Amino acid sequence: MQKLSLSQTLGQKLSPQQIQFIKLLQVPTAELDTRVEEELELNPALEEGREEQEIQSESDDTADDFDSGDELNIEDYLGDDDYSGYKMQGDGNYSEEDDKEMPVAMQASLNDQLEAQLGYLGLDPHQETVAKQLIGSIESDGYIRRELDAIVNDLAFAQGIETDTEELEELLFQIQQFDPPGIGARNLQECLRIQLLRKLEQFEDDLVLQTALSIIDFCFDEFTKKHYEKIIRKLNIEQDELLKDAVAAIIRLNPKPGGVSGGLVKTQYLIPDFLLSNNNGKLDLTLNSRNAPELRVSQSYSDMFSAYDKSDKKDKKLKETVSFVKQKLDAAKWFIDAIKQRQNTLLRTMEAIVKYQYEFFLEGDESKLRPMILKDIATDIQMDISTISRVANSKSIQTDFGIFPLKYFFSEGISTTSGEDVSSREVKNVLAQLIEKEDKKKPLSDDKLEKSLKAKGYNIARRTVAKYREQLNIPVARLRKEL
């Protein structure tokens, strides 16, 4: 028998506007222009430009001070405050150098470079189409991980071209002769082998390169695990120096040929969200001016709504029109407010971080970083931890010492023997220095690293040492061993 019952639960649901604001807050400065353009296309009630009342207010202020008999000097009427109404960098005075057009590097993509080299093979149209499919399957790091059987099917179903794995193998081998060396490999072993073969074409009698190739061909597993004694026995290497040179030759090879410079990959520019400068001991924080797009509600849409709202509401089509116009007007007002709220949230968060890590921002000394967690900033500016997390995970700041992601400044606290708390980042730096100075023939284990850190006054457990070592991308002692 089924029974009906009532139950009361307490829950929290986010409105669509709140969800949109959260997404807007996470958008980095570099992508904000695109987000604004999307909104302008979707909403005809939203326009670029400042609100009319703002422009009129500025006009009234300057008109009061202007005497028509005097010669107008624009700099007399635009002070520092007028340039930076939103406290943004980039609104103020600039030199003639700033006004010059900045050169932009024109670089071809990896795919373009490979297709250009394809033209030298003299392939027929069928082979060229198949080869382009192979090149299109090469990933950004230079590897082709898609199975050849799958590429055969791609060509058959997408382009109606019949081929087989044998033809693909033959064409792939030719692509693997392209620059950069190692391109088109299916795994790391093949990538290193291609590069060594390229070197041996120039120095075919080089014993070191020959030994390196033998290691890759016959002892690759032992090489990755640094089991050098097994390599010596397996290849009958009599001189330790020869093995050392061969291993060094392999290490100098490029494991990611698609990531090399020289126009083979597109350059990506990191646009900081904040700019911080030290002016004689005073820290000046500004928000990147791209975070302050000038937006306004369309005056024509506002007038249209006023006219419709005063007219007879009995007409069904007129009611729908009024509803549509009001919806677009509300959406435009909300988006403008959301942009301003985004600016305010970003500035308040960054101001709190600068205040908390003031000593670091003065000198750029990592040892001056204080332990700081999300809750510290959230409590200081009375915002939710999740809001601080969204800002910290997607934003960066330009300082006199370089560009830093905001999450760089957050770290756990580690107690010392003197009872003080230090940043985990400081402990990681000390850990990295210990490993850098260790005897590579007898690398320090995590237990020994723990004892060394405790000797320096840092109370830290072995599992924490292992965690920090992994975060620094440093392998275990066995894999750090060198000849």
Written description of the protein model:
This protein is α/β, with parallel strands linked by helices and 483 residues long. The protein has four domains: 69 residues; 80 residues, no CATH class; 136 residues, no CATH class; 68 residues, Homeodomain-like (Arc Repressor Mutant, subunit A, Orthogonal Bundle). The protein is built from 24 helices and nine strands. It has a five-stranded mixed beta sheet. It has a two-stranded antiparallel ribbon with strand order 1-5. Strands 8-9 form a two-stranded antiparallel sheet. A hairpin with a 5-residue loop joins strand 8 and strand 9. Helix 7 packs antiparallel against helix 8. The longest helix is centred in the last third of the chain and has 41 residues.
Give the arrangement of secondary structure elements:
Elements: H1 16-26, H2 29-42, E1 46-48, H3 52-65, H4 74-77, H5 80-83, E2 88-89, H6 96-99, H7 110-118, H8 125-136, H9 148-159, H10 165-175, H11 188-202, H12 207-218, H13 220-224, H14 228-235, H15 240-251, E3 274-279, E4 282-288, E5 295-297, H16 299-310, H17 316-356, H18 358-363, H19 374-381, H20 385-394, E6 396-399, E7 402-405, E8 413-415, E9 421-423, H21 424-437, H22 446-455, H23 462-471, H24 477-480
Helix pairs in contact: 1-17, 7-8, 8-10, 11-12, 12-15, 16-17, 17-19, 19-20, 22-23
